[in-house]
Please model this.
Amino acid sequence: MQATIDALLDSIAEKDWGIVETCLPHEAVQGLKQDLLHKQAQGLFKQAGVGKAGEAQVLTQIRGDETLWWDEKVLTSSEQLYHDYINTLQTALNQAFFLGLREFECHYACYPAGAFYQKHLDSFRKSNSRLISCILYLNEDWQAEHGGQLRIYKPDNEAFEDVLPTAGKLVCMRSDTVWHEVLPATRTRYSVTGWLRRQEI
Ligand code: OGA
Ligand code: MN
Model:
């Protein structure tokens, strides 16, 4: 685990984002997908909004995913494993970059076929507490022809790299500098999207 986290830190130092190809055991990723589907079947997901909680608006022409926030007090065993992983990552990021990260918030996300999320930055205009975005994908057998790539722009804002949302892959990026978008897919696309935060200043 340390080697993949070290490689991620190097990549973040170099270009503000990076990938861990397989951050959790296969069973844990499958467990998260089961947990997601179970909660979705209970009708707990909501159409995602744009903007900070309380001021968020539903704008499906900007983002078309449905989300459900995790409740830290009642985590499933798979959710706990992911939390443990993120805790380790948080410590490593703090040691490498002195970020003062203290909290993690995350939600399940489900993009129905055809849904997308337009190019954006993750940090809110009025708040600078979200420092690192972490996206874990839950899609088995995902091929390029299914679409749904995470498109990550380079600092010139024109060139980009596309990342396939394959099961077990973790993408981490700086929330305030890395422009990105989610392309529409031909299948339902599942993920856990979260943010490591420092205390609001
Ligand atoms: C987001 C986001 C990317 C992805 O939820 O803010 O950009 O690949 N998600 O799901
Ligand atoms: Mn984003």
About this structure: The CA atoms of residues 97 and 134 lie 16 Å apart.
